[in-house]
C-alpha cells in the first residue's frame, strides 16, 4: 500500500475551443506558485456542460502547442479517445488506475467550481482528487471572504462553512478547511500548501488568486469570424494552425 507523501500531477481540462493565452498564462503561474512539475492538458471529446464548434482532432492538435511552450505540460487524449460524454469521474477513475501513487490536482475555474454539485457523481469527485480553483481578482466577494484579515491567515486555512458566497449544495461537499494561495504569496506559505496536497490522495480544495487575463474562447471565435487579428490572444503556432485549417471562419456561437 502506498504511503504519503504522494507525487503530484495536475490536470487541466476543458473544451479548448480554441486554447488561448487566457488558459496558458494563469496555468503556468499556478504551476510556478505551487511548485507543480507535471500538468496534463485534457481536451474534452463530448463535453457535458457546453458545446464545441471544432472537431476534437483540431482541438487536440492546438493544445499540443501548449506542451511545446513549457516542458511541464503534456496533452492527454484520455477523454478524446473515448466515444462517450466526458464525465470527470470517469477520467479520474482511469487516471487513478494508471497513477496509483499520485495525488491528482484537478484545476478548474471558479464558475465551473461553483456548479460542481451538479456534475455527474459530484459526491465521488472529492474522493478522487484535490481541487485547485483559479480565481481572478474580479471575483471580489468570495476573494474578500477568503482573505479576511490578510493573505497569511487564509494560507493556513479558512473554515468552508463560513463562506456565504458558496452555494449550499457545494458547501455540503467541501472539506472543513480550504486554502488560498496567490501569485504574490510567500514561498514558504505556498510550499506548505504543496505539502498538504502531497499528504493525502484527495479531498483538499485550494483557491489560487491570479491576475485577470481579458480573453475567452468565445471572444477569440467572434474575432476570427469577423476577420479581426487574434495574435495577441493566442500562441503564434495556434494562430497559424487556425489560419492554415480555416477554422472559425463561420459565425461564432456563444
3D structure, described in words:
The chain has 254 residues and is α/β, with parallel strands linked by helices. Helices cover 39% and strands 18% of the residues. The protein contains 11 helices and 8 strands. The chain has an 8-stranded mixed β-sheet, sandwiched between helices. It is globular and about 50 Å long. Mean pLDDT is 87; it is low at 149-154. Belongs to the NadD family. One of its GO terms (molecular function) is nucleotidyltransferase activity.
Give the overall average pLDDT: 87
The ordered string of helix (H) and strand (E) elements is EHEHEHEHHEHHEHEHEHH
Strand content: 15-25%
Overall shape:
globular
Helix content range: 25-40%
Low-confidence stretches: 149-154
Distance between the termini: 47 Å
Class inferred from helices and paired strands: alpha/beta
How would you summarize the topology of this molecule?
Elements: E1 7-14, H1 21-34, E2 39-43, H2 56-69, E3 73-75, H3 88-98, E4 102-109, H4 110-114, H5 122-125, E5 130-136, H6 140-147, H7 151-156, E6 158-159, H8 168-171, E7 177-182, H9 187-199, E8 205-210, H10 217-226, H11 236-244
Parallel strand pairs: 1-2, 1-4, 2-3, 4-5, 5-8, 7-8
Antiparallel strand pairs: 6-7
